[in-house]
Write a structure and sequence with these properties.
Elements: E1 6-14, H1 18-31, E2 37-43, H2 50-57, E3 62-65, H3 72-80, E4 85-91, E5 95-97, H4 101-111, E6 115-123, H5 140-147, H6 150-153, E7 174-176, E8 183-187, H7 188-193, H8 206-212, E9 220-231, H9 242-260, H10 266-287, H11 289-313, H12 318-322, H13 330-346, H14 349-352, H15 357-377, H16 385-408, E10 423-428, H17 431-442, E11 449-456, E12 466-467, H18 471-477, E13 482-486, H19 492-501, E14 508-512, E15 518-520, E16 525-527, H20 543-574, E17 579-582, E18 585-588, H21 595-607, E19 612-614, E20 631-633, H22 635-638, H23 646-658, H24 662-675, H25 679-689
Parallel strand pairs: 1-2, 1-4, 2-3, 6-9, 10-11, 10-13, 11-12, 13-14, 19-20
Antiparallel strand pairs: 4-8, 5-9, 6-8, 7-9, 15-16, 17-18
Helix pairs in contact: 5-10, 9-10, 11-13, 11-16, 13-15, 15-16, 20-21
Length: 690
């Protein structure tokens, strides 16, 4: 939609973050009030149908689609040339504005005609103040303090904290040298006179350069903290990627070379350039510390298992520790580690850092099989096969236990596999909106969220925990892990206030846009649509999966059945109780008084293949669409508090059947031990219904 004039032109550059832009555009609509807006979205070849996605939702926005990624500055310049507003806002896609943002900033610019550009307070997703809200020009000294991290060590020092002007209070209005490129509110005429960004900067640094050039015009830049935005920081870039870290640090050198190079010696330039690269390499390490720790922990456990297998094989004999010849077998550790890293890389185990245990166990198995195969042919370094078998068993146990602990200590894990404790969520919004969102969340069998209650905006209603002013106390009282804001019924200003109030509480905040079809977190987007009911390619029906399921059923149920038989044998012999039948399986009547005998029968049915450890609920009301064996536990039984309709139940059944693996059964069994419903309880409920 073309504009001849507007109060504000808003420019957004997109690269693969269309959901964040949709959320930003919703917040802009709430902040516009009576102002005329020209909104331009420039897509830098995202390759994910971003323009189609956005145009269907926001047809009045102007779109520019590039055939390649032109970089931040060049893409913005395309839109700056088309800007017709009195003011131009350059804003990152992963931000949200408050309802009063445009009013506060236009009023400030109107009252201060010498102010050429301004910015506002920027908040991090956890509500804390983002120091990049105001910055200084990176002189040689400020660049050195930034590169060496001195500004982080002494943020409030006027000597070392100049980069972020850390001695200024976050609510202190002031003239500043540099705005954050994530939010820059300009006089359009001045912005065009400066010819926009210097396109030599691909990404980062161009905002500093543009602000620096304002000094030549007689205008100045203001920091206006009376309004605030929230910035998710870098969702359109991968900050752990060496390429982006190199670009960021190189931008400092480009700025230095452009504005200061004639005043300093060649050796000093080399020093600055070398410092920037050292900082880049350090950043790669620190930003990838989780992945490095992930690999290191796996290798430590693997090597411990190899050593323990060797020691157990030789019964911890004294000579094992004193004979130096035994150290020759340390090459087995090196070989096993190399195989694990190679296979893990092939399975994308380390890059994706998946919490799924299956790929990890495949890599362990490959390590031990590879060692056994190689040592079989290299006779001079032959290794005890029994030691390898013992080590392999130890490795399996340690890896499973370690990954289980790792998954269950992660706060932001939404997937269900391996997670015992559900993530407790409070929904904030109107009663109608939150009820709809709750229904959508609980219909997702692949999520680990448990909605513990709803908080309304300003008045109490039935079936709610309380009102918005009580949110902080409610989070503590109900031990909530996450808070979801329904943006359709809560103002951005109220949301930002609550996030700021709850900062430091260890709470994760997520946003649900007006469309209520996805959830936005700091680094992920989760769609709320249900799993499609498509009956194709059930993994449950595959022969290998059926074999593995049967082996697990037998491995667990045989010893349990034997123990239960010994325990209940007299009662089984003397019992003359009547039985009732469910789906051709007979059980003792009055299940509450015959729990142990019915438990024996259930495990006996598992041994004989008529039931399974994990399957559909024990009930005469069997699923017509998805007919599979009844189980002592199962996905439906574990999630009965989240299932509110027949459609919800079918979603859980379908997810189980489509995504089945033996690990899913093991996961269900572990969760049942910790917090699942008992099979005898299901039997009692079925008996009462019949």
């Amino acid at each position: 939609m073309e504009h001849s004039s507007a109060d504000i032109s808003i420019i957004i550059v997109n690269y693969k973050v269309k959901e964040y832009i949709a959320n930003l555009l919703n917040s802009i609509a709430k902040a516009r009030h009576n102002k005329s807006l020209q909104i331009i979205v420039v897509d830098n070849d995202s390759g994910d149908n971003s323009i189609e996605f956005l145009r269907n939702r926001f047809p009045d926005v102007e779109y520019i689609g590039n055939k390649e990624n032109l970089g931040f500055g060049k893409a913005n310049n395309q839109a700056i040339k088309k800007a017709v507003g009195k003011y131009t806002l350059i804003i990152n896609p992963d931000t949200l504005v408050s309802e009063d943002t445009f009013e506060v900033l236009t009023d400030h610019m109107n009252r201060n005609p010498e102010c050429g550009a301004c910015g506002c307070k920027i908040l991090n997703p956890d509500g804390t103040f983002a120091p990049e809200s105001r910055r200084s020009v990176p002189t040689i000294w400020t660049s050195i303090t930034k590169v060496l991290g001195l500004n982080s060590l002494f943020p409030k020092s006027k000597l070392f904290g100049r980069y972020y002007l850390g001695w200024l209070h976050e609510d202190e209005a002031s003239q500043i040298p540099v705005l954050s490129g994530s939010f820059m509110f300009w006089r359009t005429k001045l912005l065009k006179e400066l010819e926009g960004f210097d396109e030599r900067f691909f990404m980062y640094g161009e905002d500093i350069d543009l602000c620096y050039r304002i000094e030549e015009t007689g205008f100045y830049i203001d920091y206006v903290p009376e309004t605030s935005i929230i910035h998710y920081k870098g969702e359109s870039t991968r900050k752990s990627d060496l390429r982006y870290i190199r670009i960021f640090n190189k931008a400092l050198y480009q700025f230095f070379e452009k504005h200061y190079s004639s005043n300093y010696s060649f050796l000093f330039k080399i020093f600055i350039y070398a410092s920037i690269w050292i900082k880049a390499i350090t950043s790669v390490f620190t930003n990838n510390i989780r992945m490095i720790g992930f690999i290191a922990s796996d290798l430590i456990l693997l090597n411990i298992s190899v050593v323990l297998g060797f020691l157990i094989r030789f019964k911890f004999h004294y000579e094992v520790f004193t004979n130096l010849q035994n150290l020759e077998f340390l090459w087995i550790n090196v070989l096993a580690s190399l195989i694990y890293v190679f296979v893990g890389g092939f399975l994308d185990l380390f890059r994706s850092q998946k919490d799924s245990i299956s790929n990890q166990l495949k890599a362990i198995t490959a390590s031990y099989v590879g060692v056994a195969f190689i040592t079989f042919f290299v006779r001079d370094y032959a290794f005890s096969r029994l030691a390898l078998i013992i080590g392999f068993g130890i490795a399996l146990v340690m890896m499973i236990v370690f990954r289980f602990i790792q998954i269950n200590t992660s706060r932001n894990e939404t997937k269900v596999t391996g997670k015992i404790k559900t993530s407790r969520v409070i929904l904030v919004g109107s009663s109608t909106d939150t009820e709809e969102i709750k229904s959508k969340i609980h219909s997702r069998p692949d999520w680990n969220y448990e909605v513990i209650g709803k908080v309304t905006i300003d008045h109490d209603e039935d079936n709610v925990l309380g009102t918005l002013p009580q949110l902080k106390d409610l989070v503590k009282a109900y031990r909530a892990d996450q808070v979801f804001f329904a943006l359709k019924s809560i103002s951005y200003k109220d949301m930002l206030l609550q996030i700021s109030t709850l900062q430091g509480q260890g709470i994760l905040f997520k946003l649900i846009p007006d469309s209520m079809d996805f959830i936005l977190g700091k680094s992920n987007v989760e769609y709320l649509e249900s799993i499609p009911l498509v009956e194709v390619g059930f993994a449950y029906s595959k022969g290998m999966n059926q074999l593995m399921k049967r082996l697990v059923d037998l491995f667990i149920s045989l010893p349990v059945t034997f123990i239960l038989f010994l325990f209940t044998f007299p009662a089984l012999i003397l019992s003359r109780k009547k039985k009732f039948v469910i789906s051709d399986l007979s059980f003792y009547q009055d299940p509450a008084s015959n729990k142990w005998k019915n438990r024996f029968l259930m495990f006996w049915y598992v041994v004989t293949g008529r039931m399974s450890l994990a399957g559909s609920p024990i009930s005469s009301e069997r699923s017509i669409q998805y007919d599979y064996k009844m189980g002592l536990t199962g996905s439906v039984q574990l999630n009965k508090s989240r299932i509110n309709s027949l459609e919800d139940r079918e979603n859980y059944e379908l997810y189980y059947l489509q995504n089945y693996s033996v690990w899913m059964d093991i996961d269900i069994l572990i969760k049942t031990i910790f917090n699942g419903s008992s099979a005898t309880g299901e039997l009692e409920r079925s008996f009462k219904r019949d």
